[in-house]
Design a protein that fits this description.
By secondary structure, the protein is α/β, with parallel strands linked by helices. It has seven helices and six strands, in the order H-H-H-H-H-E-E-E-E-E-E-H-H. It has a four-stranded mixed beta sheet with strand order 1-4-5-6, with helices on one face. Strand 2 and strand 3 form a beta hairpin. Helix 2 packs across helix 3 and helix 6 runs antiparallel to helix 7.
Length: 261
């Protein structure tokens, strides 16, 4: 194989177009085309970058008689002087439908897509990444059925900022919201705003239970008065539609725990 043929083969093995390879190496697409057509040779520093990117030696690229295979999936490529070329990729041979069972793809501009996926940007049934999308998603910015992140959105969401049907976080928004600042139908937090029930230091809602301040359209009580009004509060709980019975039961327990503290 010629040098041009080896560059072409290695490039395709990495799933790169001529333009993408050119951008990674800091050259023009026409330069890559000339190398692959054996009309020109890369300069020494570019050849070294290419060998690190492909995980092969410079001798392999230059030696016409060398037939060693391109790097296997899962090989680390890292250069402290050229950080943008860092990547790690592993893709399992086992697939579930069209998705690989496991796909780890870490590097700038790379997306991990698999049943179990890990990457800077990750999409999968179970997904871990700085930006993550999945049924179960873990990362910095996440969207998932069950989501754990600094900024989190999902049916059940945990995070600094959490938005979901059930949300736990510094700022929590959801039907059931628990956090420093909680907004929802049922809200419990330092500041709580709940359309049905709010429990907190400052509480605003239909039924409001607060330490410092409480404002409820249906029922209002300060924690200092709570012991004397417990039975009246529970009667109000019982007036909430049965469809919310599970939540009202939980909020009773949360309210009692809050008062005892």
């Amino acid at each position: 194989m010629t040098t041009g043929e080896k560059i072409t083969k290695c490039r395709k093995e990495k799933g790169l177009t001529q333009g993408q390879l050119a951008e990674t190496l800091g050259v023009t697409r026409q330069a890559v085309s000339r190398w692959e057509g054996d009309l020109a040779f890369p300069e020494t520093d570019t050849l070294m970058k290419m060998s690190r990117l492909f995980g092969v030696s410079c001798d392999y690229l230059l030696n016409y008689d060398e037939q060693s295979p391109p790097p296997q999936e899962g090989k680390f490529v890292f250069d402290f002087k050229d950080f943008k070329n860092f990547y790690f990729e592993y893709k399992s041979k086992t697939h579930i439908g069209k998705l690989p069972l496991v796909h780890v793809n870490i590097g700038f501009g790379r997306v991990a897509k698999g049943f179990f996926s890990v990457g800077l940007v990750s999409v999968g049934v179970v997904s871990v990444g700085l930006v993550s999308l999945g049924l179960i998603a873990v990362g910095i910015l996440c969207l998932g059925l069950l989501s754990f992140a600094s900024i989190s959105a999902g049916v059940v969401a945990f995070g600094g900022v959490a938005v979901g049907f059930i949300a736990f976080g510094g700022l929590a928004v959801g039907v059931l919201a628990i956090g420093g600042c909680a907004v929802g139908a049922f809200a419990c937090g330092g500041f709580a705003s709940g359309s049905i029930i709010a429990v907190g230091d400052v509480a605003r809602g239909g039924i409001a239970i607060g330490d410092t301040s409480a404002d409820g359209s249906v029922f209002t009580v300060l924690i200092s008065e709570y012991e004397n009004m417990r039975e009246a509060l529970y009667r109000k709980f019982d007036e909430i539609p049965k469809v919310w019975s599970g939540f009202t039961s939980l909020m009773r327990k949360l309210a009692d725990a809050f008062m005892l503290n």
